[in-house]
Amino acid sequence: MPLPKTIDDFARSFALVEAQGLEGYVDGGAGAEITLRRNREAWDAIELLPAVLRGAGTRDLTTTVLGTSEPAPLMIAPVGFQQYAHPTGAVEVAAAAARSGIRYTHSTFASCGFTDLEKVEGLRWWFQQIGRAHV
After folding, report:
1. CB count, 10 Å around CB of 44?
2. Most confident stretch, 16-30, 53-67, 88-102
3. Maximum alpha-carbon separation in the chain
4. How far apart are CA 49 and CA 44, in angstroms?
5. CA separation for the pair 107, 83 (Å, rounded)
6. What is the pLDDT of residues 28-54, one digit of tens each?
7. CA distance readout (Å), 81 to 64, 72, 94, 101, 128
8. pTM for this one?
9. Residues ≥6 apart with Cβ < 8 Å to 114
């Protein structure tokens, strides 16, 4: 199977390998799924307009989130029960965040503990408590 290129491609690929009963957790949202729908609409609204061989100048993606300087406007959102997708999923996602220099948010329902995160070199992380994130 070729590598997925779109959100729909990823969903179809995951449906082939996901554990039975996991689809609602991975593909669904809470309540009326308003946030899920709005997130999809926001992604669909993004258009990439290549400007080939144009002067890009100096770019700075640095931003501030909750009073904390971040190197880019990207973070890993808290995701629970990752062991259902992969046995070491939570630690692997944290390690990928550290390698990329972006912040990881540890879920209240994470499938690894704080001691597992301590082993991830260079990890910058927050902990999600139900209802809010602690920084």
Report:
1. 9
2. 88-102
3. 50
4. 14
5. 13
6. 788 898 988 998 899 889 888 877 767
7. 29, 26, 14, 23, 14
8. 0.65
9. 106
The tokens for 50 are 């290549």
Q: What are 67-101's pLDDT values in tens digits?
A: 999 999 999 988 888 888 888 888 999 999 999 99
Closest among 128, 100, 97 to 114, alpha carbons compared: 128
Token digits for 75? 């973070």
Residue 66 to residue 117: CA distance in whole angstroms: 22
Residue type, 29: G
Block residue for tokens 């690929």 = 13
Phi-psi region of 131 (alpha: psi -120 to 50; beta: other; left: phi over 0): left
- Token pair of 25 as six digits: 């957790």
CA 9 to chain centre: 17
Three-class DSSP category at 129:
strand
d(CA 40, CA 121): 33
